[in-house]
Design a protein that fits this description.
The structure is a single chain. It contains four helices and nine strands. By secondary structure, it is an alpha+beta fold. The strands form two sheets. Strands 2-1-5-8-9-4-3 form a seven-stranded antiparallel β-sheet. It has a two-stranded antiparallel sheet with strand order 6-7. Strand 3 (35-40) and strand 4 form a beta hairpin.
Length: 176
């Protein structure tokens, strides 16, 4: 893909979320930029996860995932915890306020505007990632505020994308 089309892709609007799941009593979550509503009645939600992540492994095993929509002022160290570290190496939830939802998924409440829980109905293999589509089981607004977008993260916070992100861009000498 050439540099012009990569730059065009960066103009697609994304939010930033923590997508979570669990196996047994092991919790994990990661930053994602792809969460969207697929249908209204009944409400269905989709996300896309790299096959290289522990969260992907957990969603594959238990068929559920949680979503926390991050607020605009989310600190970079918090984003880094969920975006640049593997749950295989650290306990991401050790010092993070969270709730266990109806599905058993952990729901991050620190720096979150809303939380959602989803039961996976289908998955689509899209190469390096899996697209999960599921039924919305529960959703809760935690507070009113402005959502953190990928554009704001990239432009104003000078954030980068990890290798597993769909927006990772090694071809331009920059990440994201």
């Amino acid at each position: 893909m050439n540099a012009i089309s990569r730059q065009a892709l960066l103009k697609i609007q994304y939010g930033l979320y923590v997508v979570t799941s669990y196996v047994g009593n092991k919790l994990n979550g990661q930053i994602v930029s792809v969460v969207f509503q697929v249908t209204c009645d009944p409400p269905k939600i989709a996300t896309c996860l790299s096959k290289n992540t522990l969260t992907h492994e957990f969603v594959q095993k238990n068929g559920t995932f949680g979503v926390s929509l991050l607020e605009k002022d989310t600190p970079m160290p918090f984003i880094g915890l969920f975006g640049f570290h593997s749950g295989r190496d650290i306990d991401k939830f050790k010092n993070v306020n969270h709730e266990i939802g109806l599905t058993g998924c952990p729901l991050v409440v620190d720096n979150a505007l809303t939380t959602m829980e989803v039961k996976v109905l289908q998955s689509v293999d899209v190469g390096t990632h899996t697209l999960y589509v599921g039924e919305l089981i529960n959703a809760k607004e935690l507070k009113v505020g402005e959502a953190l977008t990928y554009e704001y993260y990239h432009t104003f916070k000078k954030g980068k994308s990890p290798k597993n992100a769909p927006t990772y861009n090694p071809g331009l000498g920059i990440e994201g």
